[in-house]
Amino acid sequence: MSRERLYLFDTTLRDGAQTQGVDFSVEDKRLIAGLLDELGVDYIEGGYPGANPTDTSFFGERPALKRAKFTAFGMTKRAGRSASNDPGLAAILDADTDAVCLVAKSWDFHVRVALGVTNEENLESIEDSVKAVAAKGREPMIDCEHFFDGYKANRAYALSCIRTALDAGARWAVLCDTNGGTLPDEVERIVGEVIASGVPGDRLGIHAHNDTENAVANSLAAIRAGVRQVQGTLNGLGERCGNANIVSLIPTLLLKKEYADRFEIAVSLERLKTLTHVSRTLDEILNRAPNRYAPYVGENAFASKAGIHVSAILKDPATYEHVPPECVGNQRKIAVSDQAGRSNILAALEEAGIKIDPKDSRVQRLLDEVKEREFLGYSYDGAGASFELLARRLLGEVPEYFVIESFRVLVERRYNAAGEFVTVSEATVKVNVDADLLISVGEGNGPVNALDQALRKDLGKYSPYIEDLRLADFKVRILTSGTEAITRVMIESADGKGNRWFTVGVSPNIVDASFQALVDSITYKLLRDGAPAPVKPAKKMEVRV
Questions:
Q1: In terms of C-beta density within 10 A (0-12 exposed, 13-18 middle, 19 or more buried), how is residue 471 classed?
Q2: Beta strands at 43-45 and 7-10: parallel, antiparallel or unpaired
Q3: Nearest to 204 by CA among 225, 235, 233, 181
Q4: 212-to-179, 202, 251 alpha-carbon distances in Å
Q5: SS3 105
Q6: What is the C-alpha R_g of the chain?
Q7: Phi, psi of 147 (to 5 degrees)
């Protein structure tokens, strides 16, 4: 029996940005879009062009997506204006995207009270806006805001909003549970009634909020009832209580027989193994601790303590694990098992291009080292470059390109020549490079920037290899409280070839943690670009300032 195509639409970069405490930078958005594209999502909604400087900048340079449709979000035109004379709609149409998703009121109460227009004027705005998007060669779709409330209040009008959009050329009409108050049985019943009224299910989507903790259940209910597009966000980000968690939806659709037998999605079983990495990378970007109890991807999602459960799991894992943890890139966590995590280490080594016999004793040594470092505060889920260096060092594949003899950072607050009160950081680094012992000094707008300037000022024969290296982002997390708090620093680096990588450092001293991550970043760049190994130890000192 042939399976039906189900389309995944991610709204992390728009809905997720509405989460309290979340503030994506342009670089964050580009990284997240790349992760979603690699995972296999069909549509990536980038935000609202023209609504704020971040979104405007992000849409100003289209992300390099391989397969997902880059989508802009916006509103239908204002009543009383033509589509060609609406500045908000113009900004959306001018953006370089594949698709456009426009939100429209489908509850007559909101049409009257919030918009202050007639029902007919609202339908006209929907029709004209969809036609304007289609005329630009973009794929149009309509988000029917508060659809379920609107349907219960005025069934005929809510349906007319859908039909107007589809008749005008919209590829999708998305049914939104905007306040998250609809329950799964209601969603399934109403979606079924909409389809029974003559609206094709393969033109309908579901957009669920999580205010009753039912967003994923509501999405699955809508799929069972006939919709063929499902929207969600990574880790369930979103305003108030969040949105449907696409990290839970994807493995459910791929691994649960009820859905896997009926539907096909673009995420492959192979790419599903990156799901835990994608989820935890988002948390690193947001500078927050991952939810240990998150379904499928949480650290404790497949954890058991010693006792009868462990005994059963060791004999037959399926007894207590509803899916194999490795299929989503996670790992079993059992205190009495020295095998826990080997599959993850092997998968990570394979992804890094490191070939090793699975029976090699160094695999277990690496696993033990990773576990020890994670206990100390390191996290390699979002720092792939540091993990690769750790693995290659254990295998003897990383030359000691340079040795840091010492470093020092001074921070001074003073008046500059213009009479302005400024804070200036100055760093001094003593580094052993091949036959030279060099001292370099750098200034920056903070201690990390100053250290970066000093470290890269002169690396002898390695300097040409790092000329295009730059720091793209810097995040700090305090892991423990008190006067001796442990600090984890994550650094994102980039080069002129478009490569990006993440490194991590951990220390009670934030500057020391930052320096560790900086050194790893440079070392990774030298290793990847094939820099030659050093030939002899230092035997003289040169001071270069």
A1: middle
A2: parallel
A3: 225
A4: 9, 27, 22
A5: strand
A6: 27
A7: -60, -45
Helix (H, G, I), strand (E, B) or coil at 534: coil
pLDDT, one tens digit per residue, over 486-535 is 999 999 998 888 888 999 999 999 999 999 999 999 999 999 999 999 98
Given a contact cutoff of 8 angstroms between Cβ atoms, the answer to whether 380 and 387 are in contact is yes
Q: Quick one: pLDDT at residue 27?
A: 93
Question: In this structure, are residues 441 and 508 in contact, taking their beta carbons and an 8 Å threshold?
Answer: no
Residues of the chain with CATH 3.20.20.70: 4-267
- Please name the fold of domain 4-267: TIM Barrel (3.20.20)
Q: Are 19 and 11 in contact (CB under 8 A)?
A: no
CA 501 to CA 133: how far, in whole Å? 37
User: Look-up: residue for tokens 């010693």?
Assistant: 306
Give residue 541's pLDDT: 43
For residue 307, pLDDT over 90 is answered with: no
- The CATH number of 402-543, from 3.30.9.100, 3.30.160.270, 3.30.70.60, 3.40.50.10490, is 3.30.160.270
| Separation CA 201–CA 192 (nearest Å) | 9
Residue 336 pLDDT class (50, 70, 90 cuts): very low
DSSP string, 412-462: EEEE-TTS-EEEEEEEEEEEEETTEEEEEEEEESSHHHHHHHHHHH--GGG
- Determine the number of helices (DSSP H) and then strands (DSSP E) in the chain: 19, 19
In 352-408, alpha helices (H): 361-376, 384-394
Asked whether the beta carbons of 177 and 232 are under 8 A apart, the reply is no
CA-wise closest residue to 172 among 191, 135, 144? 144
pLDDT in tens, 241-258: 999 999 999 999 999 999
What is the distance between the alpha carbons of residues 128 and 473, in angstroms, rounded to a whole number?
42
339: pLDDT strictly greater than 50: no
For residue 294, name the pLDDT band (cuts at 50, 70, 90): very high
Nearest to 433 by CA among 534, 351, 540: 534
| Residue 9, both tokens | 């639409």
Entry field: residues in the chain: 545
Q: Are 8 and 43 in contact (CB under 8 A)?
A: yes
Task: Tell me the per-residue pLDDT of 130-175, one tens digit each, with 9 for 90 and over.
Answer: 999 999 999 999 999 999 999 999 999 999 999 999 999 999 999 9
Q: In whole angstroms, give the CA distance from residue 44 to residue 272.
A: 17
Burial letters 6-23, b for 16+ CB under 10 A, else e: bbbbbbbbbbbbebeebe
**In angstroms, what CA-CA distances link 311 with 63, 305, 317, 327?**
49, 10, 10, 22
